[in-house]
Design goal:
Structural class: alpha/beta
Radius of gyration: 19 Å
Mean pLDDT: 94
Largest sheet: 6 strands, mixed
CATH architecture: 4-Layer Sandwich
Strand order of the largest sheet: 1-7-8-9-11-10
Low-confidence stretches: none
CATH superfamily: Metallo-dependent phosphatases
CATH topology: Purple Acid Phosphatase, chain A, domain 2
Distance between the termini: 44 Å
Number of helices: 9
């Protein structure tokens, strides 16, 4: 499969047979997601789960979180941690070896929570485990944006933000549905926008303020992550679901958030509690 030829933006129809859910940044917190799916009685025969990316690093079980990519009901986008993983293993994926393994602890991937990959390294063969190889290839096929449904049922899933390159000069701070439709049809996404889809924090850290409206006319609800806070935030149609799953290992107030598209309700699980709790609905925010 030629990864370079895969579209960055892909579309799926509305789920007419079951329910759709979106989960915040997993970061290896497999058991928290497992608890949330049990709580909503997730049915893999008809329900779908969308991920805003960052499946790996920092939490206790990155490889098991990667394994969700093999489930037909699981649809993820590429986060910045997947990007760092792919960057480090770029030559390996193209058939090269791991001659620089001794330098792995100096890589951006390792320094940002990637120490877990050491358990997948087979020193006697100087390569990674077959399972890791298989799942790494899956990560390489992930899109940057999912467009789901049409009309009032439409929503988007991405990792970071849809901030427009000219946001400082233009009244249009973010890309709109019409722009995204052009990408779905094969239109080119400029390099800066591609970077912001994965790495951007302009909206959640620089533009965010009580004066910034929750919704942007012309842009369907867009679920994202990447920027941690104790609470779900909504600005310019972006709904940020990163509530610090891995940070709940050591700090209170954080956890993994699961959002129900059909019910517009959110549940949270954390390492600090055995309970799954409902948090404030977006509709009442």
């Amino acid at each position: 499969m030629n990864i370079e030829s895969l579209p960055h933006v892909r579309a799926l129809p509305s789920n007419s047979n079951g329910r759709d859910f979106v989960v915040g940044d997993l970061h290896g917190c497999f058991d928290l997601l497992d608890r949330l799916l049990d709580a909503v009685r997730f049915d893999p025969a008809c329900d779908r789960l969308f991920s805003v990316g960052d499946l790996v690093d920092r939490g206790p079980d990155s490889l098991r979180c990667m394994s969700f990519l093999e489930a037909p009901w699981f649809h993820a986008v590429k986060g910045n941690h997947e990007s760092m993983l792919l960057e480090y293993f770029e030559s390996y994926l193209s058939g090269g070896g791991l001659d620089d393994w001794a330098q792995v602890t100096r890589s951006d991937m390792w320094l940002n929570g990637g120490e877990w990959i050491a358990s997948c390294y087979q020193a006697n063969e100087a390569r990674m485990s077959p399972m890791f190889d298989r799942l790494l290839e899956k990560i390489g096929t992930l899109p940057l944006v999912w467009v789901v449904g049409e009309g009032q049922d439409r929503f988007h899933v991405l990792h970071a933000e849809l901030v427009h390159p000219d946001y400082r000069k233009s009244r249009q701070k973010v890309w709109l549905d019409a722009d995204i439709d052009g990408w779905v049809a094969g239109g080119k996404i400029d390099a800066l926008t591609q970077e912001r889809l994965v790495w951007g924090r302009t909206l959640m850290m620089m533009l965010a303020s009580p004066a910034l409206p929750a919704m942007q006319p012309g842009l369907s609800t867009t679920y994202c992550g990447h920027t941690i806070d104790m609470w779900v935030r909504s600005y310019l149609s972006h709904v940020c679901l990163d509530t610090g799953a891995y940070r709940s290992l050591e700090e209170g107030g954080f956890g993994l958030t699961l959002h129900s598209i059909h019910q517009q309700r959110q549940l949270r699980a954390s390492y600090g509690s055995v309970n799954v709790v409902e948090v404030r609905s977006l509709l009442s925010a």
